Amino acid sequence: MLRDKLKDKAYYDDLINFRLRVIEKKIKKLESIGKFTDDVKMKNSFRIVSDITYLLHQKYSRGDDLAEFKAHLETALEYRGWQKNYADALPRKEQKDRIGWEEIREDYLENWLDWLSFAYCLEMGEEYYQQVFDLMANQGLDALFDKIVVKMGDSSREVSDTLLFKKRFKKLYAVIEAEPEQRPKLMLAYLNAWYKLIESADYHLMDTDAYIGYWCWESALIVKLYDIDDSSFIDHEYYPKDLVHWQSDK
Fold first, then answer.
1. Model-wide pTM > 0.90
2. Vertex 87 angle, CA 52 and 111, to 5°
3. Using CA atoms, how far apart are residues 109 and 130, in angstroms rounded to an integer?
């Protein structure tokens, strides 16, 4: 059953089939021997992880079974590891080239929170989380990211007292810093502000395939991680409630 209300199943079928072909093509490119440099393969590995994140967005919007997402999350972890390995293999004089693909930025943080949201809500487990944390690195740089990672189990992580992207994440940071009884109200305020905060270009109105659903994935992570009562916003149009309330059959 479709979760997105703005596009039909056929739209998502086309998007998903295309994305799967793109991922397969990029994997074959990585597996080719001697044809591409480590720099090219590092960047391609990064793009595979991004493509998998887009695929999860699209499959959620289409209404797919969330249990099936776990295999995609394992693949994302594998190729993020490949990205690091190729970066490590770069000659010393080229090591600076990896910075732009690893150093924390606002768009990267958004993608990392998306990944962690799916991983945590789908109960990928502490070993999985720690591997992701190690690969994401950037310890002690952003208060929001550091505190989320510590809450997820990385107790030895250095924690920054600086919020790097205040305009984008100040309202979300307020949720985790608040007293528990204040968090539902603050999360609702964040959800209400979210569309403007991401500076959406109204992708659903464009004659392109850029639209993949409007879902505030980080709200799912924070709600589940901090055990926030979501009854006051469970039907909010941007809240991915099915992800938050997914339960394993085991």
1. yes
2. 30
3. 17
